[in-house]
């Protein structure tokens, strides 16, 4: 059976800690060449991309981050808005001495990627989005947010490996694709002192932002028609967060885009269908002129 170690073996993948914007930031890093930063979803961590880092590192300098407040990266006492995440991404680029980066994200990571490209257009060469983009939820989507928040709060009430597994199984079409190893990794991360309560608060803040009710910025008032860089957009036929129909109008507004629908996958296309996602990313990003 494939494990995260077998996915990493022979690719030079290493765990790295850098200081970015004053935050001790953890990443899984491999490869050389043009920089490609990978951003996980809400409550996630760099291992989200365990099945992608190796193949992508044959073409790019890949850095899968633990985003601000996640994983083993520092947890500043702030409200986790999209600005906080985007500023941290740019701080990472500054720390590694890169003026421009490729940026890819799934779920929240895709939303953060969009916002980073809108806020810092001169720093992003291209986006590769995976079931995540800056789009206001429709009616069914708002109802889905309520369900996700209920399950999120349950995490602090009943923190166990089974609870962690159920949350991970929501991300995939086939629950059997959630390995014991992945559950153990997330369980260990969440077992850090104070981490469960922190993650519940962070995740609920992100959900509130999806309702456009955190702070003074309505992020959804910004249009992706303003994106200045090429965008690869990967969606799935069973995405539980936002259906393709719900976001089609937002996709249509992106000026420079390439769209691909992955079949028989849910929210984690990069995990469920790496043999499809990796070649799409490599081909698209390799065509972007320096």
Structure commentary:
This protein has 290 residues and is an alpha/beta fold. The protein has a domain at 4-134 and 217-286: Alpha/Beta hydrolase fold, catalytic domain (Rossmann fold), CATH 3.40.50. It is built from 11 helices and 8 strands. It has helices at 4-8, 53-57, 82-95, 108-119, 139-157, 161-169, 180-190, 195-210, 244-253, 269-272, 274-286, and strands at 14-20, 23-30, 35-39, 61-65, 101-106, 124-130, 231-236, 257-262. Helix 5 runs antiparallel to helix 8 (195-210) and helix 6 (161-169) crosses helix 7 (180-190). The N and C termini lie far apart (39 Å). The model has no long low-confidence stretch (mean pLDDT 92).
Layout of helices and strands, plus pairs?
Blueprint: H1 4-8, E1 14-20, E2 23-30, E3 35-39, H2 53-57, E4 61-65, H3 82-95, E5 101-106, H4 108-119, E6 124-130, H5 139-157, H6 161-169, H7 180-190, H8 195-210, E7 231-236, H9 244-253, E8 257-262, H10 269-272, H11 274-286
Parallel strand pairs: 3-4, 3-5, 5-6, 6-7, 7-8
Antiparallel strand pairs: 1-2, 2-4
Helix pairs in contact: 3-4, 5-8, 6-7
């Amino acid at each position: 059976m494939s494990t995260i170690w077998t996915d990493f073996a022979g690719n030079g993948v290493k765990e790295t800690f850098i200081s970015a914007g004053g935050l001790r930031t953890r990443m899984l890093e491999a490869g050389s060449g043009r920089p490609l930063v990978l951003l996980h979803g809400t409550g996630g961590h760099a291992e989200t991309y365990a099945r992608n880092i190796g193949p992508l590192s044959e073409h790019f300098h890949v850095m899968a981050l633990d985003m601000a407040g996640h994983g083993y990266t520092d947890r500043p006492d702030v409200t986790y808005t999209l600005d906080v995440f985007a500023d941290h991404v740019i701080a990472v680029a500054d720390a590694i001495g890169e003026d421009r980066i490729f940026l890819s994200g799934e779920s929240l990571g895709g939303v953060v990627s969009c916002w980073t490209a809108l806020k810092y257009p001169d720093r992003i060469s291209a986006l590769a989005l995976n079931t995540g983009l800056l789009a206001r939820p429709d009616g069914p989507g708002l109802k889905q947010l309520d369900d996700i928040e209920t399950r999120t709060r349950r995490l602090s009430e009943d923190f166990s490996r089974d609870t962690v597994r159920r949350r991970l199984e929501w991300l995939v079409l086939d629950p059997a694709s959630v390995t014991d190893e992945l559950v153990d990794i997330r369980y260990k991360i969440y077992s850090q002192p104070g981490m469960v309560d922190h993650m519940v608060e962070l995740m609920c803040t992100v959900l509130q932002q999806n309702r456009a009710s955190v702070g003074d910025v309505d992020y959804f008032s910004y249009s992706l028609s303003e994106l200045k860089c090429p965008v690869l957009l990967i969606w799935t036929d069973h995405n539980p967060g936002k259906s393709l129909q719900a976001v089609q109008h937002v996709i249509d507004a992106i000026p420079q885009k390439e769209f691909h629908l992955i079949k028989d996958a849910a929210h984690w296309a990069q995990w469920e269908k790496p043999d499809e996602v990796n070649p799409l990313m490599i081909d698209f990003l390799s065509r972007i002129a320096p």
